[in-house]
Amino acid sequence: MCHRPCETVCNRSQVDEPVAINDLKRFVADYERTNGGREVAPALRTKKETVAVIGSGPAGLTAAYDLVKKGYGVTVFEALPVAGGWMAAGIPEYRLPRDILAAEIDIIRKTGVEIRLNSPVGKEGLGMDDLWEQGYKAVFIAAGAHKSVGLDIPNENTWAPSGRCHPVHPTPFQSIRHRCRRHPHTGSCMGWRENGT
User: Fold this and answer.
1) In 82-137, where do the E strands start and end?
2) How far, in whole angstroms, is CA 119 from its chain's centroid?
3) What is the pLDDT of residues 78-88, one digit of tens each?
4) What is the pTM of this model?
5) pLDDT tens per residue across span 117-166
6) Residue 179 is inside which H or E element, if any?
7) Could you give the angle at the alpha carbon of 39 between the alpha carbons of 81 and 23, nearest 5°?
8) Does domain 50-141 have CATH number 1.10.10.350?
9) Domain residue ranges of the chain, discontinuous segments joined by +
10) CB atoms within 10 A of CB 92
11) Which phi-psi region, left, alpha or beta, contains residue 120 (left: φ > 0; alpha: ψ -120 to 50)?
12) What is the three-class DSSP state of 11?
């Protein structure tokens, strides 16, 4: 998913060509998946404090992984029924296969991170006071930014009265899926509809 901006400014290009870091990482990851990698051991718990992480997207999972490796107890609270945040709910599977995402998240779990799915924090779930009462000494909020950014161009909202054409709610995991209604002549998005309507 990375657009690898480091390759365009790589110092190696002064000698011959930039290091193809994206291709190298992909090769190693594919090799490990095919041939089996090292067994993941739980991280050693050296600190008595526990940390709550709200959200299991890239920021939340990275924070949880780093904290558990430093010896803290970590619990991730995810509102969706699947871990991964927008990686699982917004990026199409052809760009980020679900089995690869699940395998990467499983590595994080094996280090000792507890991930609680269907566990929103906020209006529809636990409150911050609840987390403190449960004994968490710190809270990392990685709730994500599930709203698209406008382009600030003329007529950008002409056919989308809601402001944006972005499938934030419902997510692909809810029973009613929505699709963008297209204008018959321009193809512009006119808002979201339920499947079959």
Assistant:
1) 114-116
2) 16
3) 999 999 998 99
4) 0.70
5) 999 999 888 999 999 999 999 999 998 876 666 777 777 666 544 444 44
6) strand 178-182
7) 80
8) no
9) 50-141, 154-197
10) 8
11) beta
12) helix
